[in-house]
Amino acid sequence: MYRTPLPRLRDHLILAAVLLPVWSASAQDNNPPKDDADAGRNFVKERADVDKAWKQLANKWQRLARTQATETPGPLKATPKFSNDLSLPQLEKLELEANLPSPQRASVARQTLNGYTDPEELRSHNGVLTAELVATYAKNFIGSDPVYLRSYNGHLVGPTLRAKPGDTLRITVKNNLPTQPWQKDSMNTLHDFNTTNLHTHGLHVSPNGISDNVLIEIGPGATQDYEIVIPKDHTCGTYWYHAHRHGSTAGNVASGMSGALIIEGDLDEVPAVKAAKERVMVLNQIPYIYKNTLDDGNGGTVTFNFPEGIIEEKLAGYIFGPGDWETLGRYTTVNGVQLPVIRMAPGQVERWRVVDSGQREQIDLQITNIDGSKGIPFNEIAVDGLALGKSVQKDVIQLLPGYRSDVLVKAPDKPGEYVLVDQATASGIDGQGEPLKYIARIVVEGTPVSMKLPTDGEMAKFRLPTLVNAKIDAPQTATYGILPATGGVVFTIDGKSFNMDEAKELSLGNTDEWTVEVRNGGGINTGHPFHIHVNPFEVTSIMGPENPNDPKSKQVEQLTGGPVWRDTIWVPNNGTVKFRTKYTDFIGTFVQHCHILDHEDQGMMQLVDIKDPKAPVASNNAPGLKTGVSAPAFSRPDGAGKVYNESDFAGQRHVVFLFKGHGCSHCSRQVAEFTALYEQFKAKGVGVVGITSDDATSLKTALEGSPAPFPILADPDGKAFAAYGCTRGSEIAHGTFVIDEKGKVAWGTTGASPYMNIAGLLEQMPAKADTDTKATASVEEPE
């Protein structure tokens, strides 16, 4: 079921964009510093360069579609040998290695001495974790290459955040990135890399207000405070956070704007797990351009010779297209370090919390002997932060963007040397073979120790209860696909690219079964990692082609080991994934999307709106307020401290709208809509009153330099919200009400999203001269 929560948004988008920095009060402080570089910048050329990059990226997808559409799929062959395979004869390896980037040479991997380091850690104290993430350009090194990239706090990976169930995360994101020129027709493109926000990937928390709200935008010079309350019964495990502003997600995450987020407890207290040394391993894949000669897409080449490696919109056609990662010859880093050395004692058990923060590539982790033979197995105990309830031994851990894996690694009893590799594959993420890549060197040395692995019985109780036998309330479907279009391709869910005006509606408390398919067009052979915010899901089936290189080959079941809980799952091309999920605790608007982040930025994302069926989202009878009842009395201050009462508006028809605070981007646009149309309301003799959950001080800050033309009142304790029926358990909701001249409710609506058809509401209002004769007329639902 779909609805249109923001019907008239496009009509006033430019105005809203202008006003948005003002309406970010309680939580967002916008005071952009003067950018001295602006005077010397050619914004016209910058826009033209970005337009060119978009066209180049579209052409690259068109070429791939044509190529894969005309190829004859062959049988799936054994994994091919590449020039850096350890199993090749030594002489052949030496002859071929000269053509490889230094980190991919076997000789370099065997001799690396780079130190292993965990990221900086920040822990909660007395139930609160306080962190500041400063988005800023920073100079760093990846191996011997200097890079100048967007970052959190100047590092190649953000700090690890450690909290516990019941804690509150208070995170301030300060955007110190410079301004960028406005870009025409930028929706569903890679754009505005200097505008950002924050997502806590995998957490079961509210998507509203200043919690895990990915609809917030933090422009250059702005500062946003987040307050994310972790439920007391939250699952304990390995999660992560990253930038998630539509259009800049890929550019931000590809630069390293991410970090681990760990909720401690449960498995951590199992004796064998607790005794293991813990490593947090954030795997980054940073596709910078430095000194490269690349195909220009027109039969020629282009040579770049930058002083430092960079990632910018104008280079998107060389960075974010199919095959670009392999062409650039970059490498997976561990916590920002290229080829670190991991040292273990013989017999030692370590716990690795592995986060795949790469924005588009598949990683097949394996520990091999230095000669390429079978090495050390992984003992996987959790995926995506969710306990398996057992230990599963694997030679290879497959990671897709957004995946996490908790593994126990037990060193052999004798000293030796090993390498952690991204194993070669015959069919990678774009349906093409990929070479082996080195990630780390492992040295087993020193005095042996005796350590045990945990038993399945010790871990069984930490798995979430299964939904396999649960009663299903409704089926849900989603079809992901890259489809041919004039001038390129479009990235879609259910045949449509991302649209802020449309959301998929779900019901709080329901247990639904989803069927997610990938159906690309034009012969494109790529799968898509599905991710949905707020609620995890239990995967019950993964059907896909037996031969990944031939999407039309026989369908086979690819899920082994039974149902598994996840928050991100790979859906093969021409494949189908089934899962079950229950929507608990939180209403609100959030997203589902492909976690190949350049796919998401280009449109493979969809709004999802969970509503409480006991309190309809849109109704002429708002919860607790029936048409014809007297409007609730209130006494609330504005930002200057002046107190307004409902009686101040007696005898005048007026609109009261209640919104969740200025950190909500939808609310900001609603305020902008009322501001734009206020004089027309006034001409009809209709007043407007806003009530916000912000406190008076924050409201005053928001209005400095740009006062509203109508009163906006502070209601931080939620009493006015409650009086108007704008509450859902512990959550507040948006509400818009028309109060007639007699002080009676003529019409009202509440919901997880703010009411946006303000122009339609205006049209329903009688003209000023008619108000005496139409004072008791009801307001119809605006179209």
Automatic annotation (TrEMBL):
InterPro entries, per the entry: AhpC/TSA (IPR000866), Cu-oxidase-like_N (IPR011707), Cu-oxidase_2nd (IPR001117), Cu-oxidase_C (IPR011706), Cu-oxidase_fam (IPR045087), Cu_oxidase_Cu_BS (IPR002355), Cupredoxin (IPR008972), Thioredoxin-like_sf (IPR036249)
Record-level Gene Ontology MF annotations: antioxidant activity; copper ion binding; oxidoreductase activity
Cross-referenced Pfam families: AhpC-TSA, Cu-oxidase, Cu-oxidase_2, Cu-oxidase_3
Record's keyword terms, sorted: Metal-binding, Oxidoreductase, Signal
Signal peptide per UniProt: 1-27
All copies of domain Thioredoxin, residue ranges: 625-767
CDD domains per UniProt: CuRO_1_Tth-MCO_like (cd13853), CuRO_3_Tth-MCO_like (cd13900), PRX_BCP (cd03017)
Protein's name according to its UniProt entry: Redoxin domain-containing protein
